Amino acid sequence: MVENSQVQLVENLNLTTPGLNRFVKPNDISKLVAEYGTPLYLVDEHTLHSKVRELHSSYARFTGPVKIAYSIKANFSPAILRAFIKDGISFDLTSIGELNFVKQCKGDPENIIYTSVTEEPEEYIEVLQSGVRRVVVSSFNGMTSLAKAASKLGVKPQTLIRVNPEVGVKAEVRASYRNGKFGVPFNGGTIDSATKMVKHLMGNELLKFEGFHFHLGSQITEFSCYTHAVDKIDAFITKMKKEYPNFQVNTFDIGGGTPVFYNEPVPTPAQMAENHIGRLNQLAETHGKFELIIESGRFLVAESSILVCRIVNTKEYNEHKIVIVDGGYHLLLDAALLKQEYPQEIVPIADNKKRVTTTTTTQHLIAPKNIHLAGRLCDTYDLFPLSKISSLNDSHVGRYVTFYNVGAYSVVFNMPFHCQTKPPVVMKTSNGDFKLVRKGTSYEQLFIEEGGDIA
Fold first, then answer.
1. How does pLDDT run across 73-129, given as a tens digit for each residue?
2. CATH number 3.10.360.10 given to 303-449
């Protein structure tokens, strides 16, 4: 009955296709590419802050405290981390490298949630030495490793158990399924189960049980999976309280999954939260107040960024037009891995009177559906799928193409394939200034990085 009602809720959502985040004017793009060249990433600080506010306000009806945690694997640019530090949000980290970045940006260790995959004792020693006290464990071995590190340093970290609810998830990337890599099942017949791990934690002198964490997937647009997962958590807490009367959940982290528009309309965070916020309030009323953590990587950063490329070649045959840009999937890897349909458009030309104009010529009247956008790599997969709202008319050599919503899982995947260097990154700050926040690398730097200076 619950499942059918949730499906009906999704079907009744008023989905709309959002407009593109044109935070940079054509004149500004012309000036920036004249100074920094192409390809060029552009980031809007205002969008970063507004997405934090939007996500937080979506859960305003929750009866307890709500914390937003940024999963920095989506984009670890120091400029973006510093922007989010201003917002006072938490950071979800999963590697010592990410911890190093947050520390260098002066992030508060109190605002860090550390969720390791490898869960090595040496790793946890460094984490705890950095002042991090909230750690998510995903295995019995991981819990033991954390206890060893805690004993060595004389601290008692707040320990969350990452559970795998094993619920059905309709998403671009699923993270919860039977026998999955992440987390532990509630009951699995081995020590790697939430039941065994809770039993080990209760009364533990080295670790303090803090709560539960799960992550269901990315780009979730059908939300019944959250309700089913919370139902399983509810039943499990009830079971644990019968065995341990003092059992208390202080923190409940429901992961991310908030969808971002690329090609198909998606629900808003408020529509997403409306699905399960009532159920979360019931959980708190039944078992006691807890802090609710909403993790997000993609949603917080995707719409903040665009990639500008230059058209360097075109060719036409059989009523098709191939448009080749000076970028490639080494800059937007998800275009090849997930066939991500980033919205693209040709940058309008601004004339001397500052009117934005477009041009057409009789020899380039190819229908938009027959335009193919290709990268500069010598690889069959270096083709950019087009979004339904992509606009590639007037795609002539020398014009610029903007790729929208590229802030997540793009910069962090930059690869030196074909000896390609990293492009510069420029941020439009909250006061409207443009600031270089990452220098582009040179061929000489890449050569040295690859060992070229070692005789």
1. 999 999 999 999 999 999 999 999 999 999 999 999 999 999 999 999 999 999 999
2. no
Residue the block writes with tokens 């959980």: 283
pLDDT-derived band at 365 (thresholds 50, 70, 90) equals very low
List, for residues 315-333, the tens digit of each pLDDT value.
998 889 999 999 999 999 9
Domain ranges of the chain: 45-302, 303-449
CATH of span 45-302: 3.20.20.10
pLDDT digits (tens, 9 = 90+) for 374-415: 999 999 999 999 999 999 999 999 999 999 999 999 999 999
Residue with tokens 């956008």: 373
In this predicted structure, the answer to whether residue 253 has a pLDDT above a threshold of 50 is yes
- The confidence band for 69, taking pLDDT boundaries of 50, 70 and 90, is very high
How buried is residue 450: exposed, middle or buried, by Cβ count under 10 Å (0-12/13-18/19+)? exposed
Q: What whole-number distance in Å separates Cα of residue 113 and Cα of residue 129?
A: 14
